[in-house]
Amino acid sequence: MPDYRVSPLVQELPATVPFVGPETQERNQGYLFKARIGANESVFGPSPNAIQAMADAASESWMYGDPEFYDLREDLAAHHQVESGNIMVGEGIDGMLGYVARMFLQPGDTVVTSAGAYPTFNYHVNGYGGKLEFVPYRDDREDLDALIQKAIQLQARLIYVSNPDNPMGSWWDAESIESITKQIPENCLLILDEAYGEFAPPGTLPPLDLGNQRLLRMRTFSKAYGLAGMRVGYAIGNAELILEFNKIRNHFGVGRVAQAAARAALKDQAHLQRVLTQVKIRWRPSKKSRLKTASCPCRRHPTSSPSTVEKTGPLPRL
Questions:
Q1: Phi first, then psi: what are they for 256, rounded to 5°?
Q2: pTM of the prediction?
Q3: For domain 48-269, is the CATH number 3.90.1150.10?
Q4: How many CA atoms lie within 13 Å of 169's alpha carbon, on the beta-carbon side?
Q5: Distance CA 31, CA 223 (A)
Q6: pLDDT tens digits, residue range 162-218?
Q7: Distance CA 66, CA 103 (A)
Q8: DSSP bridge partners of 235
């Protein structure tokens, strides 16, 4: 028996993690991967301006980052044409999901999500004692109507939807998303994870509805902006709802270098557009499996055979 005592909730949790990093897999297998596509990291990397901003900020890394993220929130507010009070920054969407679980859940509270959806959300829900209820995918997409109906039926506290979806890479149009945001039951919050929003076709992301206190939208600098290693994400929502984060968040969770990188990346929209142009996501039905598969820009390695290609760009996991 150990000499320490954790809470009964932690005692019951499995000793697992939602994502085994490629570094761990490389150590276990004894060789390095030639490509890292499982985590959807952008091989195009961050904006050169962001790289320079990180270098410039490195000499000041003896100081904590601004706990209010004032400059970054102002930049994000201008980018989204909202007020800075509608935005909260955190340690990637993963960190923001943990904060939301802490803010809204008590042990035994019901949470509705899709069977096979992003596992880190489930990890946080379990960590705060929530009860996960799963809805199957329908035609390779999250079943929006079924998610809402189950949330109503079970008086859920949280609903999780990613659009575009991870891991399927499918998406719903803005009209469909707007429809469910009007059906969120009382005392329930819909988390709309838009980590891959920059890659979505036009008409996928609905306009911001900052009057809806039952909706939080999540964005990140990890994917299209190529800053996965910096851990910067943010929530957009009603100003009163956003203020609740201040009660429980880690105020020094996003460092000075990371904030500088995110600001520079956001300002370099030309680099972002170059990345999106190169990725060029398009969809086609598979004759054998009926699954939708992603087409990505590929280039042949100079020493490879004609049949060997090197995939580039962040891809939806299928």
A1: -60, -45
A2: 0.87
A3: no
A4: 18
A5: 26
A6: 999 988 889 999 999 999 999 999 999 999 999 999 999 999 999 999 999 999 999
A7: 23
A8: 88, 218
Closest CA to 217 of 203, 197, 187: 197
Q: Which amino acid is at 194?
A: E
- 33: tokens are 């991967």
Residue with the two structure tokens 């087409």: 295
Q: How many CB atoms lie within 10 A of CB 283?
A: 13
Helices 256-267 and 48-58: crossing angle in degrees, nearest 10, is 150
- Category of 85 on φ-ψ map: left (φ > 0), alpha (ψ -120 to 50) or beta: alpha
Number of CB atoms found within 10 A of residue 167's CB: 15
Q: What is the pLDDT of residues 71-103, one digit of tens each?
A: 999 999 999 999 999 999 999 999 999 999 999
Cβ-contact 269, 276 below 8 angstroms: no
C-alpha dist (Å) from residue 69 to 29, 76, 163, 275: 40, 10, 26, 26
Give domain limits for the chain.
Answer: 48-269
Q: Residue 207 corresponds to which tokens in the numbers above?
A: 């306009």
